[in-house]
Structure formats: structure tokens, C-alpha cells
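Session log. Operator J.P. requested a structure for one protein chain; no other inputs attached. Running the standard single-chain path with C-alpha cell output.
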Amino acid sequence: MSDPIVHTDQAAKPLGAYPHARRVGNLLFLSGIGPRNPVDNSIPGLVLNDDGTIRSYDIEAECRATFANVKAVLEASGSSWDRIVDVTVFLTSMKTDFPIYNRVYAEYFTSVQACRTTVEVKSLPTPIAVELKVIATIE
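Structure written below.
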């Protein structure tokens, strides 16, 4: 068996002392993954005020970037998008972002049919609006 701890340069670097994912048996547990760009750590569609507070953001762009990061970690782990079994979604604004998130999610998950839980949180560790926690299988 290969190393159960997974790190990849194809997804944004973790913000702390944790891996992108960890294998346990035939299950793969991904750490929380958001939309930060793996190359420059930028957040797509985010505009900050001079004091660092959020002026505006593009939840659709963040969702698509988050899904790309999740896909990169899955593939680096020896899994794939179609092997996702459970998704926990963290949104910072359920009222304004859920309809857009739900539409984009449907594009990516129609054939996957993963279980999903979506919760609103006050904030995330960086000025992002969405983060996913994913469980997948590995052959």
C-alpha cells in the first residue's frame, strides 16, 4: 500500500499541519478544501477592501475552483470524482449563496449521487465563501 498521507501541488496548500487527504482502508478522507489557487493562493472573484474585509466575491467561481481542487486531491490520491460518497459543504451565506451553489453542484454531481450535508458557518480560515469536506473510496 502506498503512503496513506496525501499531499499534492495540484491543489492549494493546507493552511496548517494537516494533509490534503488520508487513506484508511479503501476510504479516502479529504481535509477541508476551498477555492484558493494552487499556484498563487488567490481566490477567484474575490475583491477585498483596503482593510482586508470582503468587498465582493463570486460564489460560482469559488465553487468551480473548489471542485477543481477536490478533483486534484482525489486524483493525487488514486481516487476519482465518481468515487465520492459523502460531501459536507460549508457556506458563509446560505441565503445568498445556496441557490447558486446548488445549481453548480448539480452540474458536477448529477451522476455521482453522493450524500451531502450543507451548513452555514460564520467564517472560514481565509476570506472564502465555500469549503468542502469529502469522503471517497479507493480501489
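Operator note: Residues 23-137 form a domain with the 60s Ribosomal Protein L30; Chain: A; fold (CATH 3.30.1330.40).
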